[in-house]
C-alpha cells in the first residue's frame, strides 16, 4: 500500500510541476496567437496560428520590419510590421517608404504591388499628417499591416507605446501545410 501511495504522490507532483512550467512558459516566454483578418496579407493569412516570442524584447530593441504583436486600443491584440522606430521621420510617396529621407525596399509588398492597377498600394502620407508629430515619439513604434489598403494600424490608431508590445512573431505553426518562418 505505501508503494502505491508514493507512486500516486509522485504523479501528482509531476503533474503540478508540468502545469506550472507550462503556465510560466506561456506567460513569460512563448504564447500562441491567431491571425484574425487580412491586414497582414500576403505575408500572413487569416486563421494562421503563430508563436509569439515574449522574451525577444527583454534582451533587445525592436528592429525595423519586425512583425510584432501588441495590445491595441480596442482591447484586442494586433499583429503588424514595425515601420518606424523612436526618432524616425516616416513618409510614403510614390508607393515608396522613406525613413529619415532614405528610401527603403519592402520586398514583402512586391506581390501586392504587382496586383494593384488602380493607384498605389500605400497612399502617400507624412508622419505629421497621421500622428501630428514629425518623428516617432520616444518609447513608441509606428506600425503598419502589409495589406496597406485594408489595415487598421498606426495611420489610424497612432504610434504604439513599447509597453503595449507583447513580443515578436515569425513562426507560423498552423495550418500544417503552411508551417514557415516569415520575414
Automatic annotation (TrEMBL):
It catalyses: Cleavage of hydrophobic, N-terminal signal or leader sequences from secreted and periplasmic proteins. It is found in: Cell membrane; Membrane. Keywords: Hydrolase, Membrane, Protease, Transmembrane, Transmembrane helix. Its EC number is 3.4.21.89. The keyword Ribonucleoprotein does not apply. Residues 9-174 form the Peptidase S26 domain. The chain crosses the membrane at residues 12-35. Pfam families: Peptidase_S26. The keyword Transmembrane helix applies. One of its GO terms (molecular function) is signal peptidase activity. InterPro entries: LexA/Signal_pep-like_sf, Pept_S26A_signal_pept_1, Pept_S26A_signal_pept_1_CS, Pept_S26A_signal_pept_1_Lys-AS, Pept_S26A_signal_pept_1_Ser-AS, Peptidase_S26. GO terms for cellular component: plasma membrane. The active site is at 39, 80. One of its GO terms (biological process) is signal peptide processing. Its main location: membrane. It is a single-pass type II membrane protein. It is an enzyme of class 3 (hydrolase). Belongs to the peptidase S26 family. NCBIfam families: sigpep_I_bact (TIGR02227). This is Signal peptidase I. It comes from Bacillus aquiflavi. The gene is lepB.
